[in-house]
Amino acid sequence: MSHELVSVAALTERVEAIFVKAGFSADHAATLGRAIVAGERDGCKSHGVYRIAGCLRTLEAGKVVPDADPVVAEPDGAIIRVDAKGGFSNLAFARGLPVLAEQARKSGLAALVINDCVHFAALWPEIEDITAEGLAGMAMCPSYATVAPVGGTEPLLGTNPFAFGWPREGKNPYVFDFATSVVARGEIELYRRAGDPLPEGWALDADGKPTTSPEAALDGAMLPFGGHKGSAISTMIELLAGALIGDFTSDKALEWLGTTTIAPRHGELILAFDPERFAGGRADPRATAEAFIGAIEGQGARLPGQRRFAARAEALRDGIPLTKAELDELDRLEKEGAA
After folding, report:
1. Which of 25, 46, 107, 213 is catalytic?
2. pLDDT of residue 185
3. Range(s) of the domain holding residue 310
4. Any catalytic annotation for residue 2?
5. Same domain, yes or no, for 81 and 151?
6. What is the pTM of this model?
């Protein structure tokens, strides 16, 4: 398949222009564009250009506020709350990050709670923003109900991503970001578009039976990764990033939205840790971590994110490879929007 190389700057400009033309404020367009281009730059197509149409459909459905002005409340101890005002979460996170980092250094640990947000993006850009501050971080959020709990037959859980990062001096951070479903829902859609069957064990059809059909999976339910372990972690995320922060769990998000064809509305929980404050002078936490991560690498094991960082380096050097179909989609979105 032939590709055209597009610079990160050029693609960012195109994506931002699409969002501005659709009616998003410049601040929202910038943070949305950053997230989508990060997906393409890092070789994660399920969170790249493919996501633009869904964002625009969400706007056309009246389920996101395009010019929402997120409000960061005064910190409540180590808790920082951001009211996203019904906008996409990306700008709310950007507004809350400086306060999160400041409070984490002050207290050793801080939590950023984002409420009333619409969410579609990967979590690793947020985690990398935290590690760039020299802090360790975790992020998690529910979604809308598309995943059956282990032993169940109907959607109840979301894909419920979970991400973690550890800062490394002079090196790429140690970062993982994964859905607690077998794969992200966007991967199912990419299989459908390609006309390929799903691997076994990914999904159930509407009758609760195993299926390899992407269409049947999208009408039925995905499955958690790792059986009962993934199901338990996904439930933890519903409790911490839903019930704990006073926001939707995935079933309530789907009930409010009424469809899985646009981006879900819920909340997000982000934690930041100051390694030195936690270690309390007992040892150098960064040196200890570097020795341990080095031992993993010493066995020839691949660290999470290595493929992403390699794709990023190549994209920054040579440009982002986009297919003719992807370039045509950008042209169409620029001219017509999501319709």
Report:
1. 46
2. 80
3. 1-60+305-339
4. no
5. yes
6. 0.92
